[in-house]
Amino acid sequence: MFPAPTSTVETVDSVMLYIVGISVVLLIGITATMIYFVFKYNRKKGHEPQDIHGSILLETIWIAIPTLLVLSMFYFGYEGFKEMRKDSKDAFVVKVVAKMWAWEFRYDNGKSTDTLYVPVNKPIRLEMQSLDVNHSLYIPSFRIKEDVVAGTKINKLTFTPERPGSYDIACAEFCGLKHSMMYTKIVVMPEQDFAAWYDVKKDSLEVQKAAVGN
């Protein structure tokens, strides 16, 4: 099995398998019980119906068990959600601007691209804002998604890529006619390669500023 590109993948997949497992067990149990009752309590001649009074114990059980199951699902899901909200002090910040129908990624050195470039094994914090309507940044391979809300609100998303490679970025919120075409990539690079890529623009900006000054 290939290593996951982020720790979020294992967390989300584990929660999903947990929920699906519980659902399958309940489905089989309820279906088997219904079939059993169909044969056991089918209408027969000479059978006198009897009133069945409620059972406090039984009602407590079928309220307590589903409640505990739902709370456990919430707990494991929230543990994964907290990872995306961690505000690491050494996180590499990229400003994300969403607009119909494209993504723009802005770096502190002035660089702006339509593809998200990030270093591997470095906490990344995306600060996202929309220029028009609501969008949603979704990286399927990382199992992360965050709404990008129109207006002045800035939503943040934190993750740590752990495997170099190129991964799809999609918009997961219907945003108009070309919503289905609002795709781009996140490229996770080794730290040295990213540093070289990042510094190229920085040097070129300094040259441009010097030329303008002269």
What this model shows, in words?
There is one protein chain. By secondary structure, this protein is α+β, with helices and mostly antiparallel strands. It has two domains: 7-39 and 55-83, no CATH class; 92-213, Cupredoxins -  blue copper proteins (Immunoglobulin-like, Sandwich), CATH 2.60.40. Helices cover 40% and strands 26% of the residues. It contains three helices and ten strands, in the order H-H-E-E-E-E-E-E-E-E-E-E-H. It has helices at 7-40, 56-83, 191-213, and strands at residues 92-99, 102-106, 112-113, 116-119, 124-130, 135-139, 144-148, 155-159, 165-171, 183-189. The strands form two sheets. A five-stranded mixed β-sheet has the order 3-2-1-5-8, with no helix packed on it. Strands 4-10-9-6-7 form a five-stranded mixed β-sheet. A hairpin with a 4-residue loop joins strand 6 and strand 7. Helix 1 runs antiparallel to helix 2. The longest helix has 34 residues, at 7-40. The termini are far apart. Residues 205-212 have low confidence and may be disordered.
Could you state the CATH homologous superfamily of the largest domain? Cupredoxins -  blue copper proteins
How confident is the prediction overall: mean pLDDT? 86
Strand order, sheet with most strands: 3-2-1-5-8
Number of domains: 2
Proportion in β-strands: 25-35%
| Fraction of residues in helix | 25-40%
The CATH class designation of the largest domain is Mainly Beta
Reported by name, the CATH topology of the largest domain is Immunoglobulin-like
Q: In a nutshell, what does this entry contain?
A:
The chain is α+β, with helices and mostly antiparallel strands and 214 residues long. It has helices at 7-40, 56-83, 191-213; strands at residues 92-99, 102-106, 112-113, 116-119, 124-130, 135-139, 144-148, 155-159, 165-171, 183-189.
